[in-house]
Amino acid sequence: MSTMTPRQxxxxxxxxxxxxxxxxxxxxxxxxxxxxxxxxxxTGAEDPAEYWNFEVRPVNFRYPDPAPQIFELLGPLPAGTTxxxxxxxxxxxxxxHFTRIVHPLHxxxxxxxxxxxxxPDVRPPACWEHLVPEVAALHARGLAAAGELxxxxxxxxxxxxxxxxxFDDLVxxxxxxxxxxxxxxxxxxxxxxxxxxxxxxxxxLGDDVSHQRGMLMSPAMWRRWxxxxxxxxxxxxxxxxxxxxxxYHSDGDCRAIVPELIEIGVNILNPVQPECMDPAEMKHxxxxxxAFWGTVGTQTTxxxxxxxxxxxxxxxxxxxxxxxxxxxxxxxxxxxxEVPWENIVxxxxxxxEFGSYEH
Length: 359
Known about the structure:
Helix content is 43%, strand content 14%. It is α/β, with parallel strands linked by helices. It has a 7-stranded parallel β-sheet. A 3-stranded antiparallel β-sheet has the order 2-3-4, with no helix packed on it. It has a two-stranded antiparallel sheet with strand order 7-8. Strand 3 (89-92) and strand 4 form a beta hairpin.
């Protein structure tokens, strides 16, 4: 088999065809801050994607600053707090990079308050006009481009409203829940269209709707509130670029909704957390309809395995999940500070050693 360009390799793998080699990346492109310092010390480099030649690179919207009235809703905030475009405040924690969230709409009591809340306006060209040249530049380098739209609807909504409040709305105040979710969906449909117009290869959607013992909500609740809205976002992208690949991320065990994700157009499941989902079984059940992105555990193999165990896991994933294509190897999440550097090196060495499909 002739050598493919990185973009060709990604597209073949994610279309469940057999590429020349298994493509790879780090989840969400980088490390947690403590590991990023170790990366710089060990390599002298600044960009893991360039250092390890990831075949796919992200492109992002540029978001406006949060509206001034949001700070009135948030009230006094500790020093060092950041507030994102959605008005969600992130208060510095005491442990590494972790933060505490302050929910700006936590006290809302009426539908009008939800309707009037100033969500970011992403329609001005300054938010998206850079996407076309950025994607073109990646394609000119032979790289695949992924449009970043994860934490698509559910996660941003609960971070604005508060998780308990949002679930309470969906059960007891459905008009309030509907207003927030519909407003989020409208924004995401616009962004999906712009990503497709920019010719991204993959649209990365996702919401953590599951934990490691099952769903965060009943499948019926997900089906009522989130499935049709996610389908609208996917349809908005496909109306512009029918062949765009749709990636869906949820941590935990989301097996209860996988057939319905496929039904609404998802092509790629991420991260396939091996602590609660057997990647080989998922390949057996859904490998004719889904590709898999991730599969190497950040709760098990990365922090606690040896380099030899890491290589054995990578080899097994390629032998099973990668059989015939359909695999992009990555950690199942960003790598935390306790991950030994040697295991990171072993991960990439194993893909180099075992990842070829040439016979």
